[in-house]
Amino acid sequence: MKQALIFGQNGTPLEILASADYQQWQSQQSSYVQNWLSATGFSGEGVVLVPQTTGQLQQVVYFVKDLNSYWLCGDLVSQLPVGQYLLTNTDAALRKQIAFSWALGHYSFDNYKTVVKDKAQLVINNQDELQQYQHLVKGTSLVRDLVNTPAADMMPQHLAEVMQDLAQQFDGQFSEIVGDELLEQNYPTIHMVGRASENKPRLIELNWGLESAPKLTLVGKGVCFDSGGLDLKPGAGMRYMKKDMGGAAHVIGLAYLVMAFKLPVRLRVLVPAVENAVSSNAFRPGDVVQTRKGLTVEIDNTDAEGRLVLCDALAEAQSQNPDLIVDFATLTGACRIALGTELPGFFTDHYDIATGLIAAGQKVDDAVWHLPLYKPYKDLIKSDIADLSNCAPSPFGGAITAALYLQAFVEPSTPWVHFDIMAWNNRKLPGRPIGGEAFGVRAAFEFLATRYQ
User: Nearest-CA neighbor of 104 among 56, 130, 72?
Assistant: First the structure.
């Protein structure tokens, strides 16, 4: 498929205007164009193809209700004939939103299709701006591609290849701890969850940036397929579990943005990558495991595996005393019940960070919602025979109890944010097809850029 955004000077002129400005724009057109608009019944909403008297296309103008939306052109690509369109808007902020929404409206996951249709391309006449737009789009499309890829082609070893390629692209350092090495180096919960699969579990790590810079650590849940383990999911619940590595996809997309825009941080990315499979050596309900931190955990439910792989990774993230830890995970259905599938919740006790994230999300049209780490619910994850249980006995407050479990592995003094995300669009919206999606990545990057620039 051709690139959505290209550099150049030529193409059919394209301008994006507010519907409220239609009458003024119409009054400035020739009588020929005004008569044509009247004859076609155009009223100032949507696409107008402005013809020349020769019948050729002179200009395209797209009228939208809200110029502030990051998705204002999300449907435009599908409404235009295949060709190249030169963006003529002069406002820099608006050009950024147009290019972003155009490119994500152009997105489709075609890796397994034998026939791929060409789509309209947007021509940008400023090379520096084009590169910036392409980086922003890549941060989202990378997440989508990873989540959309079938599990057979996106197992722990494939996630490792993606992170290794990123390290090479940005001159970072890559490493991984694989299989029984996890036990040797004290990552017991990652090994326990992934040991039943022929696709070996691993902790994947990427480091980038000056060691003297503030330490930013990203942790992403990389459960590449979740059968539920011995607490087996029903078929409908298992159908889209290729997306259970969505947390890993999110931190990889966010890491790409951090490196592409050269934020002045010492970036560390940790992805505990496993397949939660069923075999003779699968972990069981009732088992007790001693975690990397030393806390013991009783397994109440093998389908609450994401927090198990994350707790060892968070304990390791804590070991370097970073300035900030951010984790992403497709962790609970409870968060979807509370907020729906399109609004990601996040947890933190650092309210300055919460305020900053919400403001950043509003700025870039990527809403996020602060949920409480309600301490009295800690009682719900107590165990009679271990320090913790991996699952509360009741589904009520499930997103909170999962977050409280993770918090037990982070020191109170360390700024920490936990995102509980869907990573999947259940309905088609402008620029957002059904399938893998990045939730909170733009908000998090905008927050990080403000915090560290």
Answer: 72
**Distance between CA atoms of residues 215 and 321, nearest Å:** 8
pTM of the model: 0.97
Distance between CA atoms of residues 227 and 238, nearest Å: 6
Altogether, the residues listed in the chain come to a count of 453
CA distance 1 to 360: 32
**Catalytic residue flag (residue 117):** no
Q: Is 378 exposed, middle or buried (0-12, 13-18, 19+ CB in 10 A)?
A: middle
Judge whether 220 and 327 are in contact, CB under 8 Å. yes
Q: CB under 8 Å to 422, separation ≥6 — which residues?
A: 246, 330, 336, 341, 342, 344, 437, 439
Mark whether 233 is an active-site residue. Answer: yes
Q: What is the DSSP letter of 185?
A: T
CA distance 330 to 162: 19
Per-residue pLDDT of the chain (453 residues; tens, 9 = 90+): 579 999 999 999 999 999 999 999 999 999 999 999 999 999 999 999 998 888 889 999 999 999 999 999 999 999 999 999 999 999 999 999 999 999 999 999 999 999 999 999 999 999 999 999 999 999 999 999 999 999 999 999 999 999 999 999 999 999 999 999 999 999 999 999 999 999 999 999 999 999 999 999 999 999 999 999 999 999 999 999 999 999 999 999 999 999 999 999 999 999 999 999 999 999 999 999 999 999 999 999 999 999 999 999 999 999 999 999 999 999 999 999 999 999 999 999 999 999 999 999 999 999 999 999 999 999 999 999 999 999 999 999 999 999 999 999 999 999 999 999 999 999 999 999 999 999 999 999 999 999 998
Tell me which of 96, 233, 363, 378 is the catalytic residue. Answer: 233
Q: Annotated catalytic residue: which of 307, 336, 432, 442?
A: 307
Residues 6 or more apart whose Cβ sits within 8 Å of residue 34: 26
Angstrom distances, CA of residue 21 to CA of 17, 45, 65, 66: 7, 10, 10, 12
437/246 Cα distance (integer angstroms): 9
Q: Say how far apart CA 2 and CA 8 lie, in whole Å.
A: 15
